[in-house]
Amino acid sequence: MENRESEKPETGIAGDSPFPVPASRPFGPRRIVCLTEEPTETLYALGEQDRIVGISGFTVRPARARREKPKVSAFTSAKVGEILKLKPDLAIGFSDIQADIAAELIRHGVEVWISNHRSVDGILDYVRRLGALVGASAKANDYADTLQRGLEEIRQQAAALPRRPRIYFEEWDEPPITGIGWVAELIRIAGGDDVFPELAAEPLAKQRILADAGEVVRRAPDIILGSWCGKRFRPEKVAARPGWHAIPAVRDGELHEIKSPLILQPGPAALTDGVGEIARIVQAWAVRWCSGRD
């Protein structure tokens, strides 16, 4: 009789499911198009990059992804025809801004997941959910735990600061747009206080536009962080704004750029290099502040 031992069903897959799943059947989507950077970075970190068949043109992390994967989307637009040629079984994007792209792909029969997380806990949960989606729950949980431990280490270092600086984070300059929720959280973790906490709670950029830029002068930040998505931060232009010479950050030359891929993507980069950059700036400010008191 033919030996069919290898065809016996295997259980224990997908969280100890009681339903038998053939061992040869791959778990989850096998051809994924990533419309933003964070799913690409996360899947590479989990060792699941072979599932990716297309990426966003704004992807910079990891660097090898740009060499290995075709670029088929921007943030507000996508090459839908090129995406369809890749025959994806899942497209992953972020936020209401990509709603039109998602709708068009759905109309062409592509399954789409649009995440909409806006907090540090949301980013950690995103890593766990994406891992579960591709059958890598254990690796994703370990990775999220590692990210969380890194944040806690930075939080503990910040607790030793002699003073917490007040920080204005600018996501765009014309019109001025303040930082999103996870940015404000990372500023707190790194030892600072966002001067517009009420706006950070607003999920949409249009809700974080400053109607009166003079309000920044009145809130007197000690540090200004700029991350103008898609273009270089110009501290000299910020310092030249009417009345801004009176701001402590401008007076003391505390205007710093954080590259947008490090902080404005709601993925692992923000929880590692992004918060690390904020912490470095805050720690250096604290040293200068102490020196000035001596």
Key descriptive features of the protein:
14% strand; alpha/beta; Rossmann fold; 10 strands; ABC_transptr_periplasmic_BD; 5-stranded mixed sheet; 5-stranded parallel sheet; disordered N terminus; ABC_Transporter_SBP; Iron complex transport system substrate-binding protein; 294 residues
Q: How would you characterize this protein structure?
A:
It comes from Pseudoxanthomonas wuyuanensis. This is Iron complex transport system substrate-binding protein. InterPro entries: ABC_Transporter_SBP, ABC_transptr_periplasmic_BD. The chain is an alpha/beta fold. The chain folds into two domains: 7-116, Nitrogenase molybdenum iron protein domain (Rossmann fold, 3-Layer(aba) Sandwich), CATH 3.40.50; 146-293, Rossmann fold. Helices cover 44% and strands 14% of the residues. The protein has 14 helices and ten strands. The protein has helices at residues 13-16, 37-45, 63-68, 80-85, 99-107, 120-133, 137-158, 181-189, 197-200, 214-219, 235-239, 248-251, 260-263, 268-293; strands spanning 32-34, 52-56, 71-73, 90-94, 112-115, 166-173, 176-178, 193-194, 223-226, 255-257. The protein has a five-stranded parallel β-sheet, sandwiched between helices. Strands 6, 7, 8, 9 and 10 form a five-stranded mixed β-sheet that branches. α3 links the parallel β2 (52-56) and β3 (71-73). α6 packs antiparallel against α7 (137-158). It is globular, with a radius of gyration of 22 Å. The N and C termini lie far apart (90 Å).
